[in-house]
Write a structure and sequence with these properties.
Elements lengths: L1 H14 L15 H19 L7 H20 L4 H18 L5 E3 L1 H7 L11 E3 L11 E5 L5 E4 H18 L7
Parallel strand pairs: 1-2
Antiparallel strand pairs: 3-4
Helix pairs in contact: 1-6, 2-3, 3-4, 4-6
Length: 178
């Protein structure tokens, strides 16, 4: 979903007479923390899908590490309201994940609507919503089938809005970005 958000933001930025070169002028600190965090998550998901790792204590602590990196990034860029909005989305996801043993709750109705398998635990750090799921409404509950089959959470949507605004405003070289 985030790749589609980036493409959409760039298109909107061009519509509003923005320039991609303006993004290079925005001061972002410690962007490498986001890159490392997402690479770590991708490695965990890949190893789970290959059956080399299973959801448990190790994946829980890897998730903690990943979110610490993201929150350090957000803290270092706290003057930027759009990065703060993305950080709020990350926080909503972290709450859902850590209250549910290190897995993101996924709605069975959303899985059905998106045409996805109910065996989500073998696909990554996910678990189908059940009777003991805490704050299920912060989990992946919105089916998303544009270009790819996926399910997104409120936190994903908040982070996506922050990312979209960051790119559009950055392309327009808004004073708030400096």
């Amino acid at each position: 979903m985030f790749i589609q958000v980036i493409v959409l933001a760039i298109i909107i930025g061009f519509i509003f007479k923005g320039n991609l070169n303006n993004l290079a002028d925005i001061k972002i600190e410690a962007l490498y923390l986001v890159v490392v965090s997402f690479l770590v998550e991708a490695m965990v998901i890949l190893t789970i899908r290959k059956g080399l790792m299973h959801i448990g204590y190790i994946t829980y602590f890897i998730d903690v590490f990943m979110y610490i990196l993201l929150f350090i990034f957000v803290y270092k860029n706290r003057k930027n309201p759009y990065i703060m909005l993305m950080g709020f989305g990350f926080l909503l996801n972290a709450i859902a994940i850590f209250l549910n043993g290190g897995t993101m709750p996924v709605s069975s109705d959303a899985l059905k609507t998106a045409g996805m398998t109910f065996n989500v635990g073998s696909q990554g750090l996910y678990n189908v919503v059940g009777n003991t799921t805490k704050l299920w409404f912060l989990g992946d509950i919105f089916p998303y089938t544009f270009i790819q089959k996926n399910i997104v959470s409120v936190g994903d949507l908040v982070a996506a809005v922050g990312m979209l605004l960051f790119i559009v405003k950055g392309m327009r070289k808004s004073k708030i970005m400096e």
